[in-house]
Q: What sequence folds into this?
């Protein structure tokens, strides 16, 4: 069978535009090309790949251009999360040693939020990495690949290694206790054997179930085998500065000094605090967060315009109807009112502060955002407090995400020997802490993890 090499379009950052090639290689397993004089990252099986659980969700719903998870009705989205939470992942960290564990919390991507169950013992994903790999992933530092080179173990904090369409691999086994849920999700008959479901010919084969047709979920027994070339460390290029890594692959970035390449402008937006019975946040603290958010955004070149000048922010402004902050009960009725008002006022953007227990409501909000064509973003209440008290560099992650959502461009990645025939697999940048007096040296740096590989076809 002759495979036609797809045309990949490169965007202005130098990387392929995902939406242009997501559907072109279904069923094709790339033949990876390695360069002899470069160290090769060898991934023997899919079990060697670690990924943020949120990417497993995106893998089903988004990366392959099938249908975005925002298009799912809230009940369907909740059902999908329940299904994913039943998956067992086998972490391989020894020659003949597997560590079976059940991941819970696939809708989140933070190491202290996701939980792991093993032998009836529950721990955070952060503790799991520290216990098994002696690696402190901190928040959002994800070692997605582990390999040995020159006798030393290397970690690669990538976004998701499985974005190449058509790659085959066994993502997980199913906990026997979750088989009834699997049958319900797939609407399979009781006499359907799990082995028959697992032996589907490709990961993304369409199921007879309507939801699975939209998500294209199935299983594959054959493991993924891939080699990847490691490219030279890239240079991060902002509008007013270029930053190169040191010999350890670390970037020292002064948080407030750097302007994004293209900062967005938003004049009509609102911040909404969802008051939960499980976790409450005062309106004063939420307003402090919005002050920090706006100042930080302006420093990076975003124009998140406030109807109340920042200089007058020293007093509480909740009584001022022009102030873009409001606190409501975390109910569908109150959220409906917010979107109806936003639609009437032609608001472009809604920023929600919420508690992690309100996942179902977040799915409903995403659905409303799609319905009214309003961009939404969610900030966990613990992260709001972190931004206020400057315990972590989480505010940088929040602003970077806002700029992308509103159409801006944060930075360019310049790779000296980047091959435009190469397929970009994953990249993740951590913003450093503002607390430069911290004794923790790691907090003063931002870290990039990346792998690119060239591909070919038989």
A:
């Amino acid at each position: 069978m002759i495979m036609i090499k797809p045309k990949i379009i490169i965007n202005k950052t130098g990387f392929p535009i995902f939406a242009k090639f997501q559907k072109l290689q279904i069923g094709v397993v790339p033949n990876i090309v390695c360069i002899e004089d470069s160290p090769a990252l060898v991934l023997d099986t899919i079990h060697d790949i670690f990924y943020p659980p949120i990417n497993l969700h995106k893998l089903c719903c988004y990366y392959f251009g099938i249908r975005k998870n925002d298009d799912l009705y809230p009940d369907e989205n909740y059902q999908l999360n329940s299904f994913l939470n039943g998956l067992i992942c086998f972490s391989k960290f020894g020659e003949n040693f597997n560590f079976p564990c059940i991941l819970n919390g696939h809708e989140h991507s933070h190491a202290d939020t996701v939980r792991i169950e093993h032998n009836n013992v529950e721990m955070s994903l952060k503790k799991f990495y520290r216990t098994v790999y002696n690696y402190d992933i901190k928040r959002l530092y994800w070692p997605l690949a582990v390999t040995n080179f020159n006798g030393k173990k290397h970690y690669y904090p990538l976004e998701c290694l499985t974005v190449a369409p058509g790659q085959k691999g066994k993502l997980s086994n199913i906990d026997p206790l979750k088989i009834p849920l699997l049958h319900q999700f797939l609407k399979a008959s009781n006499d359907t054997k799990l082995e028959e479901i697992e032996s589907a010919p490709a990961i993304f084969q369409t199921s007879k179930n309507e939801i699975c047709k939209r998500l294209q979920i199935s299983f594959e027994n054959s493991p993924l085998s891939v080699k990847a070339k490691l490219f030279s460390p890239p240079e991060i290029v902002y509008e007013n500065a270029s930053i190169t890594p040191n010999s350890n692959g670390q970037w020292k970035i002064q948080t407030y000094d750097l302007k994004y390449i293209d900062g967005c402008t938003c004049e009509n937006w609102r911040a909404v605090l969802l008051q939960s019975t499980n976790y409450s946040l005062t309106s004063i603290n939420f307003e402090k967060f919005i002050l920090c958010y706006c100042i930080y955004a302006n420093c990076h070149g975003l124009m998140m315009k406030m109807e109340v000048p920042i200089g007058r922010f020293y007093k509480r402004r909740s009584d001022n109807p022009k102030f873009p902050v409001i606190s409501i009960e975390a109910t569908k009725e109150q959220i409906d009112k917010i979107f109806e008002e936003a639609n009437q006022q032609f608001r472009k953007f809604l920023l929600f502060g919420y508690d992690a227990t309100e996942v179902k409501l977040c799915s409903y909000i995403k659905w409303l955002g799609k319905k009214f064509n309003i961009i939404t973003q969610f900030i966990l209440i613990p992260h709001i407090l972190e931004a206020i008290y400057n315990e972590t560099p989480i505010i940088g992650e929040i602003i970077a995400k806002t700029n992308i959502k509103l159409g801006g461009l944060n930075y360019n990645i310049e790779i000296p020997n980047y091959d435009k025939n190469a397929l970009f697999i994953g990249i993740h940048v951590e913003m450093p802490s503002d607390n430069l007096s911290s004794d923790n040296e790691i907090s003063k740096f931002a870290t990039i993890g990346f792998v690119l590989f060239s591909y070919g076809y038989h």
Summary: DSSP finds twelve helices and 22 strands in the chain. The chain has two domains: 18-228, 265-405.
